[in-house]
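Good morning N.,

You mentioned wanting to compare the apo and holo forms, so I went ahead and generated the holo version with iron/sulfur cluster. This is what I fed in:
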Amino acid sequence: MESLTNRKKVVSDKPMTFMEKLYIPAILKGMMVTLKHMLKRRKTVKYPEETRTFAPIYRGMHVLKRDEQGRENCTACGLCAVACPAEAITMTSAERTKDQMHLYREEKYAVTYEINMLRCIFCGLCEEACPKEAVFLTDRLVPTQFERDEFIYGKDKLVESVDNRIDITKRQFTGKRTKI
Ligand code: SF4
Ligand code: SF4
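and this is what came out, ligand included:
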């Protein structure tokens, strides 16, 4: 049957010549390939001493944003979780009370919000789906861990601190507001 890829090779059973039996030409050919690669410019870097420059729209660890008054933007609508192809996001919601007006911008807020970083493929669809500009991917790396549980990121790791805001303006410009 004809192969789909057309990469099929017919194995020959013809007797080997004297030179082929010596294997020296084949060894020299192999060494030439090795030498050629040794002289080529290296494509690897000596991480962590050297690092590559990230693209401005690199998609790394998420952040849950606050507004100018320090209130959490997320309204626990669940659209990010629905959009997530890896089913990495889970949350529980509650109604905001009067004494929580300074904590949450919307009437409903996320009591818990978790992202499983082992499932996440950093596609950015959660960011695209969010109607409240609450979740963004940043240029921060998810650090390595020894335990699987440590890759479940809750609000303690995701919500930005009031005193240390994460700049997401590059993503806002290139992701959401680019006019096609
Ligand atoms: S970046 Fe993609 S995979 Fe990761 S949580 Fe968001 S939607 Fe899911
Ligand atoms: S991050 Fe955005 S999309 Fe996800 S639950 Fe909060 S408001 Fe909704």
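The chain is about 25% helix and 15% strand.

Happy to go through it together on a call whenever suits you.

Best,
F.
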